[in-house]
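User: Please go through the entry that follows and flag anything odd:
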Amino acid sequence: MIISPPYLQARNAGEAESAWITRMLQPDDQRGYPVSRAGSWHGGIHINSRNTAARAEKVRAIADGKVVSFRTPASHALRDTAPLNLNGATDNGYVLLKHEIEIGSGENAKVVFYSLYMHLEALEARVVADAKINRKEMLGTPGRVDGTNAFHFQIFCDDTNITRLTGRKTRELDITQDGRTDVVYGDIHFYLPPKTDFYDKAPEGNSLSTTGLTKVHTSTDALYVSMTLGLGSCTMTTRLEVKDKKGTFEATGEALKNTDGENYEYNLYKNSLSKYKQSPSAGYELMRFGRVINTDHEKLVPNDAPLWMTVNYPGGKGVVNLALPTVKKFSDADFPHWMGWYLVSDDEDTNSQCNSAFIKKMQDDELYESSKDYLIACFPFEWDSATLESRFSWLKNKRDDFEAMSDDEYDTFIKHVESLSFGPGDYPAGKVWNFNPASFITHFRKNMWLESDVISGVMCANTSPKNITTINNISDKSKVFQKAINTVLNKYNLVTFGRVSHFLGQGAIESGYLMSMQEVSQEQIEKKVNVNGVEKTITVGGSIVKDSKKDESSELGHWYGSLASEVDNYFSGNKYNSKGSLIAGSYSWKNGNCGDVDAQKFRGRGFKMLTGLDTYSGYWLYRGWLKKEDFDASWWTDAEYKKKNASKMKKRAPSISEPHKITENEYNCIDTGGYFITGFRTKTLQVMDSDKSTTDDEKVKEVTEKINGADLGLDQRKKATKKAKELLNDEI
């Protein structure tokens, strides 16, 4: 989900994400969420207007969506008089958007929610029935509410989609089983039950055995541990439920940063090789998520391999095996209640008065103010013109804290509410689930699951808009590779603005915009040319060799070149383009290749074109398809290798029989890119993290040089990366 606030201004120098969002969403404290000062439900927040005499700030769409309802604002004369003016001039213009977005893989990750922008003074011309609205596009100008410059902003969904958005309908998260795997994002959380053992250190060799270790603590209470990975670091925070404040959780001890190794996140690949030698790639997921979530393609060997991490407990810290089955694993996608997220649905009546016993207790315990922003509450939709009487008749009844309205007062009030309400449409009726909009946006900005059209937009960055056929072909490929791209982005924690932009921008060029996941061969033709009256013979590139384009798994059934009839000298010889310029030399004795056969066998494949036996063997080792003891490291340093005499080499080169395994499925194709930048070229990630700009071409050049050692296709890489930033950032 790509989401942003309804107000967009440039960030100040050094301004943190949370501070920027707070600045964009400054609420009116008197019109809070989810309960107003009058004790009635309030589904949104009122955001103070930023309009000045010199400049009118525009309200913008928070995500891609469709207009399902809107109203052109009444004139200023009407807003200043009854029924709109009850306690001050009030604008009645609004836009209601329906958002259909993916937040993960599978049907249950396809979510629908709505955003409402009420009390607008003017609407943009693009706001018409069923109009498609893109994120960041202007919707209108904020107006007035009860004489105050502000607008009402609300985010809600129906009963089906609350389960898809949060993974549950229950108030608290079920801690008897692991959390979702179809949707995983943000921090990783661990529930440690009572009687969990802590040790003085991790066992040697990442063993399961605790022999020789000293037990330093056995927990008596449940502990809740959060792991935050980013910018190379790992931060572990332990929380404990406060005994006299049930439902309130506080950190115990200072958060532990990189206690289990400096640059912990940057070193995940290196540690996966040393700690999980039989299945490093699955081990990488274990360290990244606390479990293997991509079980279709990754298998942990042994399946009970441990995850030893240093964790705080009350009064100290110790090492715990977080992979134990008794320790339950979650992510921010599960909306953990120990992080403040509670689903409130205990108000069973249909009126607008808040009669939630859960909220009443929070108020009595003086916990409401500090907790309200994370409550997800279910109550009647407050703009439904068909339910006015059922929602507001309680106002005619006297309460201890509320004086009953007279009939005239009630009639005046109902006319005011009716002038702001709207009838049925393509949106939920009755009770809906409401989120604090600021909390919703902040939370889902951690989710970087990309729609296929975003991926396609990056891949088409270097394609002319007139080339419809190519654009359609790339769009189709983007749909094919969408799940794999998102899975890999999440696996390698490539979920920040800079990391995603560079990964897609570089991969676009490496993979031929997703159209070519394997290097193709081009006929090399000798051609006679006349240069200054002298006839010369040059070599030029001709047509693409058709067999080199075929899918090796589904069409050929073997790697291209394994049959004598398929031997292709393109890979073992010099390569020229159609103008006769040299593209590249022979692959035969480069990148660990042992002759002409290897030159073709280990041609470029994958999202990041892995080329040569050296890079192939590294990836095979990482995926657990090859054992380290089956070959000798740095075989290319053998004296006979340098003489191009493979048969007399003493060092053993790796044996890989099916090099086309890289392209046998979408996941393997894209995973090569994640492996390459986090494992094979480990400094690439740090360069990506240093990019704080949307226009810094030098950073694109640095990343390009880290990936391919030169600046091949630099202009195209710049365009693709710039397009990715444009689609992902908050600039207008």
